[in-house]
Design a protein that fits this description.
The complex is a heterodimer of chains A (70) and B (112).
Chain A lengths: L8 H4 L4 H13 L6 H6 L4 E5 L2 E2 L2 E2 L3 E5 L4
Antiparallel strand pairs in A: 1-4, 2-3
Chain B lengths: L1 E5 L2 E5 L6 E5 L2 E7 L2 E7 L2 E5 L5 E5 L2 E3 L5 H17 L3 H22 L1
Antiparallel strand pairs in B: 1-2, 1-4, 3-6, 4-5, 5-8, 6-7
Helix pairs in contact in B: 1-2
Classes of the chains: A alpha+beta (70), B alpha+beta (112).
């Protein structure tokens, strides 16, 4: 039984949990004191491929490359 | 005892807690051992509380609260509040809201 209970605002805006979680993590990393901030900035680099499935077949995968803003 | 920042609210976990999976929101995870308290800020994630009184915390980022830079938090909060006002698409609004939520939680962690 699927319920139509309220979904989190980020999912309603079309964002996946992974994206949400990575955005949160990046924001936290940018709010650290030195030297901790420099140590963790390398973790910000993310590379993943995202495929939308239609009628049992994957469409062309979209590759997301998130690198630090600097 | 551990207090975890679940999306449903602050949750206290003692040995013998019923097996639970909780989604975490950005917030402070405090580990109480006797009178000693260690506080960590978790960016988001999950907490798995097992039947044998073990708990696993899964987070992309978890930092001791004293590593948080207050100036960066205030600036971030101001920036994202600004972004929410100028956001047009749903995605921009969601990103701005996430920014506000995380920075508010960071602020509460350093001032709490």
């Amino acid at each position: 039984m699927a319920s139509n209970a309220a979904v989190p605002f980020w999912r309603a805006a079309g964002m996946t949990y992974i994206t949400y979680s990575n955005i949160c993590a990046n924001l936290v990393r940018n709010c650290l004191k030195e030297p901790h901030k420099s140590e963790v900035l390398s973790r910000e680099k993310v590379h993943f491929a995202f495929s939308v499935w239609k009628e049992g077949k994957p469409l062309k995968p979209v590759t997301r490359l998130d690198s630090p803003q600097e | 005892m551990v207090i975890i920042p679940a999306t449903t609210g602050q949750m206290g976990v003692l040995p013998g807690h019923v097996a639970t999976i909780a989604e975490l929101k950005p917030g402070v995870l405090s580990v109480h051992e006797g009178n000693d308290v260690k506080k960590y800020f978790v960016s988001s994630g999950f907490a798995f509380i097992h039947a044998n009184s073990y708990a696993d915390i899964i987070a992309v980022e978890a930092v001791p609260v004293d590593q948080i830079d207050s100036a960066a938090v205030q600036k971030g909060l101001a920036d994202f509040t600004q972004k929410l006002n100028t956001a047009t698409t749903d995605l921009e609004k969601a990103e701005a809201q996430i920014g506000i939520d995380v920075h508010s939680a960071l602020n509460a962690a350093i001032t709490g």
